[in-house]
Amino acid sequence: MLGGMDATTPLLSIDRATVLRDGRALLDRLSLDIAQGQHTAILGPNGSGKSTLVKLVERRLYPLVHDDGSAVVRIFGRDRWNVAELRSLLGVVSSDLRREFEATHETALDTVLSGFFASMTLGRDHVVTDEMRTRALDALARVGATPLVDRDVSTLSTGEARRVLIARALVHRPRALLLDEPCAGLDPGTRRRFLDLLRQLAREGTTLVLVTHHVEEIVPEIGHVVMLSEGRLYAEGPKERMLAEARLSALFDWPMDVARVDGFYDARLR
Ligand SMILES: Nc1ncnc2c1ncn2[C@@H]1O[C@H](COP(=O)(O)OP(=O)(O)OP(=O)(O)O)[C@@H](O)[C@H]1O
What is the pTM of this model? Predict the structure, then answer.
């Protein structure tokens, strides 16, 4: 047991998070609990606060503090973590991360290895062991990125770069992955292969938290849907109920037809 954590400790627990920018609430008293093993999609229109929520978890943004000093964000029950410990529990892949890595000109392998040191690049004081190298190569193989090991990450396509960053998160063998719009910019074939990879990870026990505005990306393993609107919790519950036509149409403010095919959902504008 890690730091008093057991299987009932929520993976993510957010208590009335408010994030202000220029006097505007990007998140407005948002409360949310995601259990371990509860594969979840976080769905919402543009500007609803999805990426802000991811930044909050990554600690790129800070919420207003509570008067009583209680924690706003808890990950596996705790609000303070050392980075290495946290990464073995929760891997985060966000669009900010992609932009930052593009500027490094590291190889794909070194990008994955840098994950062991909680740094963006490999420095002289970073001692890479054989075990780390093996794990990094395994993680790259896992996401089908073996041919990319020696490539400069700034030259990779969107889909290739996404795979490398997921490999970087996977070297820690995290229990959960938080993915912000992971399919943005992927062609249909690459997207399907990528979703198959997520399905496989879910079946092997990695809890998926998938942030998206595309219903089609909600893989069958995901059973729980959280809907955001204007920085607030709009609705949450079982996928079948959340993805009903009336609710989805209201969330995206446009009438939609929803179909279900092989466990996936498809939403079309009417
Ligand atoms: N640094 C900032 N300063 C001011 N406003 C911001 C800042 N970052 C985000 N916002 C605003 O906060 C709101 C929520 O943005 P956020 O990126 O979280 O939305 P999102 O749901 O991820 O949207 P999308 O689907 O378009 O990526 C938006 O209205 C956005 O304009």
Answer: 0.90
